[in-house]
Amino acid sequence: MSEPLKNGRGYVLVTAAYNEEENIAKPIESVLAQTELPQMWVIASDGSLDRTDEIVQRYAEKHPFIRFLRVTRLPGRSFRTKVMALQAGMKLLEGVPYKFIGNLDADISVGPSYFADLIARFEMNPGLGIAGGFVCEEEGGEFRSRGSNRVYSVAHAAQLVRRECYEAIGGYAVLEYGGEDWHAQTTARMQGWSAEAFPELKIHHHRHTGEGGNLVRHKFRQGRMDYAFGSDPIFETFKCLQRLAERPLLMGSFARLAGFFWSSMIREPRPVSDEFIAFLRDEQKKKTLSLLNISPRHDRLFGLR
């Protein structure tokens, strides 16, 4: 078995799992196969009602670096409770020496050198604050890169954050509509850190995005998330139009746009600062302007997430 990373390269992981008995063994087995193991990995069962707890406990008994935590709450999937479970798990990391902290979703798997490869990229770029791979989902019997992947948008599914960056942004925020990864990397860039996703590092997602609930409802929620972060209306419209050909096709793009303008119409309060909104909109305006001046082969650059 490989050993945890030494010489200041150590990393820790936290996972929140809700009713993941069908998938939870996949991330666990992929972490156990890593060429370099984490210092500690806390898996928090977020009120699971199935056999998730039993499965995680069985692995934890065999592998001392895996810690199991049971979080009790009302049933149902929730972005707020997921991050609250992550925060509860992070409390168990107090006193553990590490250089990088990472989130690992309970329905993914990664290659055996995934985390070692990420850390190598951090070492090559001292200004890199958040890093991860590209999410791939199964289509036609093979895993393919998700259409929404962007090199400047690091999916929360399997990411690492430099400890100094993580502490500077105050960790992952508890947000009603999700988007803790988007919030984290935008806040990181506001403070001078960079965030980057690497296409060659594959994250195998074993449940299609939005599959935990109705897909149209999922996209409508994403639109409300976009509004909550202060996304520019023109940019939001361009983004949704550009994604008309992406899964789940027309209804998903229109549902996301509808969610955005619904929140705008009811003047829903935003959980972010005016400074955050100004910074985000400035980034989006630059992407929109670049769209108007780049070749068609680069037309995906203006997507936000």
Give structural notes:
By secondary structure, the chain is α/β, with parallel strands linked by helices. Helices cover 39% and strands 20% of the residues. The protein has two domains: 11-205, Alpha-Beta Complex (Spore Coat Polysaccharide Biosynthesis Protein SpsA, Chain A); 215-298, no CATH class. Strands 1, 2, 3, 4, 5, 6, 7, 8 and 9 form a nine-stranded mixed sheet that branches.
Computed structural class: alpha/beta
* Overall pLDDT confidence: 88
Which percent range describes the beta-strand content?
15-25%
From the coordinates shown, what is the CATH architecture of the largest domain? Answer: Alpha-Beta Complex
Question: Any idea how many domains?
Answer: 2
- As for the CATH topology of the largest domain, it is Spore Coat Polysaccharide Biosynthesis Protein SpsA, Chain A
What is the first-to-last residue Cα distance? 37 Å
**What overall geometry do the principal axes of the alpha carbons give?**
globular
Topology order in helix (H) and strand (E) letters: EHEHEHEEHEEEHHEHHHH
> How much helicity do the residues have?
25-40%
Radius of gyration, CA atoms, in whole angstroms: 19 Å
- The first-level CATH class of the largest domain is given as Alpha Beta
CATH superfamily of the largest domain: Spore Coat Polysaccharide Biosynthesis Protein SpsA, Chain A
Oligomeric description of these chains: single chain
- Strand tally is 9
